[in-house]
Amino acid sequence: MAVVTRPVEYHHGSVRLQGLLSWDDAWAAPRPAVLVSHAWIGRDPFACGKAQDLTKLGYVGFALDMYGDGRTGSGPEENARLMQPFMEDRVLLQGRIGAALNAARAQPEVDPSRVAAIGFCFGGLCVLDLARSGADLGGVVSFHGLLSPPGNTAGRQIGAKVLVLHGYEDPLAPAGQLTALASELTEAGADWQIHAYGGTLHAFTNPRANDPAFGTVYKEIAARRSWQAMGNFLAEVLN
Q1: Dist. CA 96–CA 35, nearest whole Å
Q2: Where do the structural domains in the chain lie, given as residue ranges?
Q3: Quick one: fold of 3-238?
C-alpha cells in the first residue's frame, strides 16, 4: 500500500500537456478524482505535492498543466508572462482546463462520475472558470484565487458546487470582489460557500510565500483550516 504517481500526456489542440496522476496502488477499483490547478508558476512541486496529499485522503489526484510540457516560470516576471495569455483569453483558459478534466476522467484509476477540482491563486481562477463554463463535475475549491468574472458566462447556470477559501486582506483579490462573486454565483444558481480568513493575505497555503510587499504571506492556521474545509467539502460532493 503506497502512494504512486505517473506522468500523463494529454493535448489541447496542438499543445502537448503534462499532468501528474497520483493514486494508491492498494486500490482495487476506480476512485473519485480531484484535479489540482497550479498557481502562476506552473505545475510545480507544490501542485504535485497537493495531488499526493489528496491521495492520502482517498482520492486520485491529478496535477494538471495549463502551460504545456509541464513548463514552470523562473520568477515573477516569467510567471506573469506565462499566465497572461489566459487572463486575456478566458475562452482559452476554459478550454485548457476542460482538456485536463477530460484527461483525468479517461484514466483507468478514476471513477469518471465522481470528479472535483481545486486550484491555488491563478489555479483558483481556473477552477472557478471551469464551474462557470458549465462543466459537469461535483464541485470546485478555490484557495486564495483570483476572482474576476470571465465575461463570457453571464446567464449560464453553474451546476458544480463551489467553495472559495480566501484571505480577507488579499490585495490581489480584495474583499469587495468576494461580494461581487457571491452575487455572480447566486445569479447562476450555484450552491456556494465563501470562507474568509481574517488577517490573511494572498498565497496563505504556500510555506514559500514570504513577500509582504507583494501581498503573499504563508499563514499556517489559515492553511490548516482551509485544507480541513476542503476535506469536508470533497467528502460531500464526491461520496
Answers
A1: 13
A2: 3-238
A3: Rossmann fold (3.40.50)
